């Protein structure tokens, strides 16, 4: 039998949250915005590389689009070599031929998230990233608000958000491309996200990975957010490109933080045309 008081439960939650927030979240190496297949993969690999990593998700639950395969059917497909990422997490895959693999969506989401937690990723759920911290020439973190607070009637929404600092922010917000959108309103040369084009599986999978890059110093656009930024084709219910894009985003973040140098998506050098504009050669 236990003898646990109500006050003890509350105090434990409050103390633990504040301690975690101040020591592990407030000032981190990488903030990954969005916990879909791309964000979860990026966060897992960042943490495995030893980076202090926070993944932020506006929903109560993490996983983004991974919970459903297509047409509301809980079967997810990935193309090689992304199957290796899932195998590493312990996901049970079935070979469907021609380099295509299939798994249960619940198996994929739970094992990917579990693998990210094991690597040390901190998750903030029910938390909306409203904006970037944007300094003169780089992104310096994100602005956050409780997602439920965002749903309140307009006369109550005069509540200011708070901020988290990070060396790198990964925009893995999916179709919204939220952070690129915010940046495009303030920095010339940053494209206004146009949304994805029509379906073409192979090409979309390839482009999703290629388009994942550091779009502005301190901001990496990844996965469907990158696809939507540039109007590349949609890929439909296949997740391999998202996983590979997440892994690439983690490598870019690591190189930037540990190597102190920025690289574009194609491995080209990045130079600054003006304090505001980032161009690739
Ligand atoms: O949409 P999502 O799964 O993006 P992804 O990881 O993968 C795309 C595929 O799921 C799918 C596809 C290809 O297979 O067609 O679309 O690139 O995950 C994006 C996550 O970001 C959260 C959102 O709730 C979702 O879980 N998100 C979006 N905006 C915000 C956010 C925000 N402002 N703050 C916090 N979370």
The CATH superfamily is known as FAD/NAD(P)-binding domain
Strand content: 25-35%
> What is the CATH topology?
FAD/NAD(P)-binding domain
Number of domains: 1
Radius of gyration: 19 Å
Number of helices: 9
**Nearest-integer average pLDDT:** 92
Helical percentage = 25-40%
CATH class: Alpha Beta
Ligands in the model, by name, code or SMILES, are: ligand 48F
| Bulk shape | globular
Unreliable runs: 262-281
Largest sheet: 8 strands, mixed
Structural class: alpha/beta
**Annotation, overall tally of beta strands:** 15
Terminal-residue CA separation: 67 Å
One letter per element, helices H and strands E, the order comes to HEHEEHEEHEEEHEHEHEEHEHEE
* CATH architect. name: 3-Layer(bba) Sandwich
Short précis:
Helix content is 36%, strand content 26%. By secondary structure, the chain is an alpha/beta fold.
Written account of the structure:
This protein is of the alpha/beta class and 281 residues long. It has one domain: FAD/NAD(P)-binding domain. Helices cover 36% and strands 26% of the residues. The strands form four sheets. Strands 1, 2, 6, 7, 8, 9, 11 and 12 form an eight-stranded mixed beta sheet that branches. Strands 3-5-4 form a three-stranded antiparallel beta sheet. Strands 10-13 form a two-stranded parallel ribbon. A hairpin with a 2-residue loop joins β4 and β5 (100-104). The protein is globular, with a radius of gyration of 19 Å. The model is unreliable at 262-281 (pLDDT under 50). The structure holds ligand 48F. The site of ligand 48F has 27 residues, from α2, β7 and α8.
């Amino acid at each position: 039998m236990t003898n646990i008081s109500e006050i003890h439960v509350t105090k434990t939650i409050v103390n633990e949250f504040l301690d975690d927030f101040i020591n592990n979240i407030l000032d981190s190496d990488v903030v990954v915005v969005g916990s879909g297949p791309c964000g979860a993969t990026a966060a897992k690999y960042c943490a495995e590389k030893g980076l202090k990593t926070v993944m932020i998700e506006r929903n109560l639950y993490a996983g983004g689009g991974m919970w459903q395969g297509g047409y509301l059917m809980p079967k997810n497909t990935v193309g090689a070599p992304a199957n290796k990422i899932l195998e590493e997490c312990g996901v049970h895959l079935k070979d469907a031929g021609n380099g295509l693999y299939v798994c249960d969506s619940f198996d994929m989401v739970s094992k990917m998230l579990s693998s990210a937690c094991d690597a040390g990723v901190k998750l903030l759920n029910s938390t909306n990233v409203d904006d970037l911290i944007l300094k003169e020439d780089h992104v310096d973190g994100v602005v956050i608000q409780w997602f439920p607070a965002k749903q309140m009637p307009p006369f109550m929404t005069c509540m200011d958000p708070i901020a988290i600092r990070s060396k790198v922010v990964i925009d893995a917000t999916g179709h919204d491309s939220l952070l690129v959108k915010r940046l495009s309103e303030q920095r010339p040369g940053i494209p206004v996200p146009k949304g994805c084009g029509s379906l073409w599986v192979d090409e979309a999978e390839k482009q999703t990975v290629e388009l994942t890059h550091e779009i502005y110093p301190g901001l990496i656009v990844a996965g469907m957010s990158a696809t939507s930024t540039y109007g590349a084709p949609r890929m439909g219910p296949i997740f391999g490109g998202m996983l590979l894009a997440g892994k690439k985003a983690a490598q870019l973040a690591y190189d930037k933080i540990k190597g102190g140098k920025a690289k574009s998506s194609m491995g080209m050098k990045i130079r600054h045309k003006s304090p505001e504009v980032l161009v690739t050669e």
